[in-house]
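thought: fold this chain, then report.
action: predict
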Amino acid sequence: MRILLWHGYLLGGTGSNVYTRMLAREWARTGHDVTVFCQDADPGAYDLGGAAAVRPDVGGLLPVFVLDRYEGYDVKLVQDCTRAELDAWVEANACALRAHLPADLVFCNHVLLGGPVGAATGARFAVKAHGSELEYAMRGNAALSAWGRKSLARASATFVGSAHIRAVLEEVCGPVPRVHEVPPGVDVDEWRPRPRGEALAALLAEARRDPPNPGNVEERLPDEGNAARLEAFLAGDRPTVVYFGKLIRNKGVHVLLEALARLDARAVIVGFGDYRDALEAAAGEQALFTGPLEHRHLVHLLALADACVVPSIFPEAFGMVAAEAAAAGCPPLVARHSGLAEIASGLEAAYPARLRDLAAFATGDAVELRRKLERLLSLAPDDRAALAAAARQAAVQRWSWTGVAGRLLAPVAG
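observation:
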C-alpha cells in the first residue's frame, strides 16, 4: 500500500510522537510505501524503516494540547486558537498531503486536528484518536467536539487504543461510526531484558553521546553530565524504581515520591515539564532527575530497575510506558484507571496467581503504592524472575508492533 502518515508534531519524546515513528517504521519494513508528514526538523535522527518524511509549512503556528516550548513556533492551545487560525493550519497540512496523492490511505493522528486534515485531502483517510486531544482540548468544548464528530463521520475508520478511549470518544463526540480498538505497539526486540552489567555499560555509553546542555537550559535535551550522575547514583544493588513521562501534575509523580519517602529504595525520574522543580525539591537525594531520555537510553535503564511506576491521576489513553517496561522485563505498577486498567488486566492474566496483585494500585493512593512497592522490591529471586518473565510475555503476546501494525491496516485494506 501507499500510505501517507500525518502527524502534526515531532517524532520524539511524547507518546503520539513515538507512536508515529514506530508505525512508520513497521509499515515501511513490511514493504509499504510510507511518507511521514510531521514538524520534526530532523526526522533523519530516527529509524523510520526507509519511510520518507515531509515537513509541511504551517506558517509558524503550532496548536497543541499541553503547552510546551517549541523553538521557532508560536505555540497555542488548540482551544485558544481562532477558528480561522485552525482552518489555515489544517489547509496548510492538507495541501502538503494532496501534493503527494494518490495514495491508498491517508492515516492521521488525533481527532483534532488530524480528522479535519484527513477530510480536507479529499482522499480516503483513517484517524487514530490518542486521548490527549479528547481530554485536554475537546472535552467541554461544544464547537471542537462538533468539528471532530463531523470529521470522523467521513473517515473510513477511527482507531482507539483502548475501551476507555472508545468510551471517551463517544462522550466527547457522540456516536462515531466505524470505530476499531487496536492498542498501541511496543518494539519487543528493542525493549527486552538485558544483563545488568551490559545494560549499565550501554546506558552510560548512550549518556556520553548526549549533546551538550550547559546549565540544562534546553528542557528537551538530557541533563548535562548524566553519564557521571547515573554511574554514581546506580552504584550498588539498592532497589531501583523508574518513572518516565511528562513531569506535570496529572502524571502523579508526587504520589510516587510520597510512597518512596519511607522505603529503602532509589528512583530515577525521567522527563521534562513545568512540575519538575517542585518534584525535585520534594524528592531530595532519594531520586535522580535526568531530564528527557530517548529510547536508546531507556531500553537499558529499564533493565536496571526493579519496577516501573506509572502513577497518573488523570485518564490515560493506554499506558505505553507500562507496556514498554513490561517488554523490558521490568514489572510495571500502574494506577488502576482508564487505559492503564487495561494494561493491568493484561499483566494480571499473565502473572502467577500469588503475584497478581502487584500489577496495579488505587489511583492517587500513596499508602497502597508504598505497600505494594515494598512487597515487590523484597521478592525472593525466583518470584522476581517469574514476575519479570510474565510481564515480558504479556507485552509480546498483546502489544508487539508487528501485530498492531497489521491490525491497523486490516479494516482499511482493499
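thought: worth noting. Residues 196-399 form a domain with the Rossmann fold fold (CATH 3.40.50.2000).
final: C-alpha cells above.
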